[in-house]
């Protein structure tokens, strides 16, 4: 595929630029791919341009996606994943290392880079390396070689780093390389066979519970190790991904208040959905009560396997805590945990279904739905999808999201006032495992420009 074309055009809308701390009606001129002018409009020039209409945002950055290549190209390839990312407004995507083979040595990094280049997509591909060989949790991977190959962090995602002692060494070694450890917090001794968040909904449905303590305990362990390590290795950094419970977010809040170099992200599905959806409710987290039976909120059949995800969908209180964490800065980023799967892996009994939601194309829509419902100011939400993730990557971030005149345009134009129907055909991802299929959601991406080039255009 040939390289995407450089964009030429004039864009008008409500621009949000967290890097500059500014939002307002604006006109952006892009010439030969370069943002040559950004004019803030007022008075009659700004008429009809508002935060509930066409938005001009810096290109979104995702810290956590699974593109399944190498090893499971039936579920997603780098090319289809990048097309999905562009359709979702993302211009930079960091890939998780739980491929087959795992990204635990430089040759796998090269292979993914080659696939990204061959796709012709201008969307940037970042790659996180594995913490341990084969993600087995037994032997530290060659972190130095992976760092030389350009990885942006280390993670055994899909699993926590099994041993505390290896986690401690990993924090030290990665810290000396200037890279974060990206931790999937879960105590497996508490979650074996778990199907849904432990609580009322799981009990009524007869599903085995995933206790909140499994997340809280794992987060506490990692933070305690970080506190130890950072005394000797000041560059050590811990990023906790897909934190899903109020109690674990409290741990992060305390650690950050104590000055520890810890950050975390939350996912669009933990922000917008709750475990009520497994019972058959379809109201968003901010409309939910936790008891869909009492409320007559059941509008769909139970046990839709697209809702099986790890960590599991939580209670409305936990979902609202995720929004609050973004609002008060406890959570730095929204990361999609885009996890495409084949029909074969999902068309089974709920407890047998593989974990994951194909979510990179609906992330912005779910966040905008929450913003429209008053869960978060628009500018804070945009920061969590742009400058926030860049902060987590620190010096290794290849891009500082922002609307900067004189630089290649890296932006997304999304109509917040329009809606689209999520269908299998509408999703560019091979993964059609979305609980939103058939549903109208707000926020239609009209144009995605990555490094001045057209990544997606409606
Ligand atoms: Zn994970």
Relevant CATH superfamily: Metal-dependent hydrolases
Basic shape: globular
Any ligands, ions or cofactors bound here, and which?
Answer: zinc ion
What amount of the residues lies in strands? 15-25%
Structure in words:
The protein has one domain: Metal-dependent hydrolases (TIM Barrel). Helices cover about 30% and strands about 20% of the residues. The strands form four sheets. A seven-stranded mixed beta sheet has the order 3-2-1-4-14-15-16. Helix 4 crosses helix 7 and helix 8 runs parallel beside helix 12. It is globular. The two termini are about 20 Å apart. The mean pLDDT is about 95. Zinc ion (ZN) binds next to loops.
Brief overview:
By secondary structure, the chain is an alpha/beta fold. 30% of the residues lie in helices and 20% in strands.
Q: What's the arrangement of secondary structure elements?
A:
Elements: E1 9-17, E2 22-31, E3 34-40, E4 54-58, E5 60-65, H1 78-87, E6 90-95, H2 106-119, E7 124-127, H3 143-148, H4 164-176, E8 181-183, H5 188-191, E9 196-197, H6 200-205, E10 209-210, H7 212-229, E11 238-240, H8 246-257, E12 262-266, H9 268-272, H10 276-279, H11 292-295, H12 316-328, E13 333-334, H13 343-346, H14 363-372, H15 378-384, H16 387-393, E14 411-421, E15 440-450, E16 453-457
Parallel strand pairs: 1-4, 5-6, 6-7, 8-11, 9-10, 11-12, 12-13
Antiparallel strand pairs: 1-2, 2-3, 4-14, 14-15, 15-16
Helix pairs in contact: 1-2, 4-7, 7-8, 8-12
């Amino acid at each position: 595929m040939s390289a995407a074309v450089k964009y030429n055009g004039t864009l008008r809308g409500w621009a949000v630029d967290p890097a500059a701390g500014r939002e307002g009606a604006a006109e952006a001129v892009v010439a030969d791919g370069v943002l040559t002018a950004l004019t803030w409009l007022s008075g009659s020039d700004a008429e009809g341009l508002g935060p509930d209409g066409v938005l001009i945002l810096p290109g979104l950055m995702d810290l956590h996606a699974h593109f399944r290549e190498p090893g499971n190209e039936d579920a997603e390839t780098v090319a289809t994943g990048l097309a999905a990312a562009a359709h979702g407004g993302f211009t930079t995507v960091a890939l998780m290392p739980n491929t087959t083979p795992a990204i635990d040595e430089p040759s796998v990094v090269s292979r993914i880079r080659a696939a990204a280049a061959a796709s012709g997509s201008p969307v940037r591909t970042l790659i996180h390396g594995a913490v341990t060989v084969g993600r087995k949790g037994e032997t530290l991977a060659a972190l130095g070689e992976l760092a030389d190959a350009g990885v942006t962090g280390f993670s055994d995602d899909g699993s926590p780093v099994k041993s505390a002692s290896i986690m401690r060494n990993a924090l030290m070694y990665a810290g000396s390389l200037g890279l974060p450890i990206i931790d999937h917090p879960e105590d497996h001794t508490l979650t074996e066979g778990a199907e849904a968040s432990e609580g009322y909904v799981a009990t009524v449905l007869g599903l085995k519970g995933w206790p909140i303590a499994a997340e809280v305990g794992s987060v506490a362990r990692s933070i305690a190790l970080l506190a130890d390590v950072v005394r000797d290795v000041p560059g050590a950094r811990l990023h906790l991904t897909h934190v899903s419970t109020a109690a674990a977010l409290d741990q992060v809040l305390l650690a950050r208040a104590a000055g520890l170099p810890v950050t975390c992200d939350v996912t669009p599905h933990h922000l917008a959905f709750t475990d009520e959806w497994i019972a058959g409710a379809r109201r968003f987290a901010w409309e939910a009560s936790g008891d869909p039976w009492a409320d007559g909120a059941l509008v769909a059949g139970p046990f839709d396997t697209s809702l099986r995800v790890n960590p599991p969908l939580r209670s409305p209180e936990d979902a609202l805590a995720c929004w609050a964490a973004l609002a008060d800065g406890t959570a730095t980023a929204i990361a999609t945990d885009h996890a495409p799967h084949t029909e074969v892996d999902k068309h089974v009994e709920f407890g047998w279904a593989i974990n994951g939601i194909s979510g990179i194309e609906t992330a912005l829509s779910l966040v905008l739905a929450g913003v429209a419902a008053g869960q978060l100011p628009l500018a804070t939400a945009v920061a969590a999808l742009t400058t926030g993730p860049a902060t987590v990557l620190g010096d290794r971030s290849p891009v500082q999201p922002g609307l900067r005149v004189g630089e290649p345009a890296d932006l997304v134009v999304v109509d917040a006032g329009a809606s689209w129907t999520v269908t299998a055909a509408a999703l560019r991802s091979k993964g059609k495992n979305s609980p939103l299929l058939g549903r109208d959601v707000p926020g239609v991406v009209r144009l995605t420009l990555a490094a001045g080039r057209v990544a997606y255009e409606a």
